Amino acid sequence: MRLSSTRFTLTAILLAAVPAASIGADYLDSSLNEPVDIARLKAAWRAMANERVRFPLDMRDIAVRIGPERQLFVDNMLLARADDVTRQVHRPKRHPKNPVFKADRAPMNQAVIETVLQFKTAPRFRTWYVSWDDWQTLSTGQLIRFANSYAVSDDGVNWKRPELGLHTVKGLVGPNNVVIPYGQMQGVFHRPEDPDPNRRFQSLVLVERKNPAVREGYYVHHSRDGIHWTGDLKRPVIPSLTGGYGIPQNGIGDTTRFWWDSLKQRYVGDVKFVVSPGTERGRGIMFSDDLVHWTRATPTMMARRADVQIYGHRGFLYQGRYLGLRWVFVPVRSKRHATYVELDCSRDGTTWTRVGAGQPFMGFNDRHDTWDASIMRPVSVLEVGDEVWVYYFGAPTEIEAGNKALPDSHRTDYALG
Description:
By secondary structure, the chain is mainly β. The chain has five helices and 22 strands.
C-alpha cells in the first residue's frame, strides 16, 4: 500500500511541476471522467470504419501471416500494391418466392425475424420471430410487450407454423406457435455441447414491462429444444438504452443483435448506441463467454454522412473471415425507417471496416413495387450447399402501400425474405 501511495504522490508532483499555460487549460483534468466533446466524438466514430484510418501503416515490406482460409480480398491487407484498381460490391439475388414467410393479415400480427438457424436434422431450418406488436396482460397481471413465435422449414423456403398450444396471445391469428409470450429474442443460440440438456438453446430477450414498471433490458433464457423456454426476469444482464443519449450511455439500444463467434468461441453483442444532440445512431461491440458477464462495449462505427444513420448491424463468419451487414437508415425516403444494406469486414471480429463504401449490397427498389423496396434488415447468413443465403426481414412503407403496382401477396407487415 505504501508503494502504491508513493507512486500516486509522485505522479501528482510531476503534473504540478509543468506550467498549466504550456499544456493548455483544456488539457489538464484530474477527475476520473475526462470531458467528452460530442462533436469530436461523432467525427471520430464516423471515421472508425475507414480502413486507412484504422490501419495507417504501409505493410508492403512487412511480413504478414496468411492462414489456410479462403482470401476474399474485401480489405487491403494482402495488397502490396494496386494501380488503377477499384472494388465493386456484387449484390445477391432475391429469391423469386419472396416474401417466403409472413404473418396472417390481421392487426398487430407480424413476422419480425430475429434469427434463422440451420440444422443437420429435421427440421433443417428454424426461425424465431416477433409475432405480436402490442402490449398484453399476462395471467399475473403484468403488462408486457410483444410475443415470440417459432416456424420451421425443410428447405429454407417453404415454412410452416407448428401448432404448439403453449401460450395464448389474444388477437394473434393462425396456429398457436408462440414460444415466449413477451419480449424480442435478439439472439438465439444452439449449443448442443452444453452438459445441461435444458440449456442447449439460449437466447437474450429484450423485455419491456409495466404495472409495475420494471427496468427494460436483456434477459437470459434457456430451452432444451428451442420451443419450451424459461427465463429469470428478476434482473437484466444488460440494461436497455432509455432516454438522455449522453455519454456514458445508460444501456444498449433496441436493434442490438447477439451472435455466436465459433472461431473465437465467444458470444458477440453488436450493440446500438444513440448520441445526442442530433439523436444519431452508432454501433459498438462487446463479448461474453457465458451471456452473463460482458466486456466493456467499444464503438465500431457511425455513418459517414450526417444525413444517414446506421440503424443496425449483424456480423457473421464466412470461410474463416468476418463479414458484416449494416442497415443504413435514410430518413428522407419514408416515414417508416427505410433501410438498405452495405457490406463491411473484420479480421479479428472487433475492428470493422467498410467494403466499397457507399455501394449498396442490398439496395432500394425505386419502382416501389415489392414488399422490401424500402426496408431490408439482414439477421442471418447461412451456407446452404454451394450458396450463401442471406435471411432478412422487411416491410412495405407508406410509399409501397400506396403503389397500385404492388402485388397483393406483397401487402404484408414485416415478413421474411
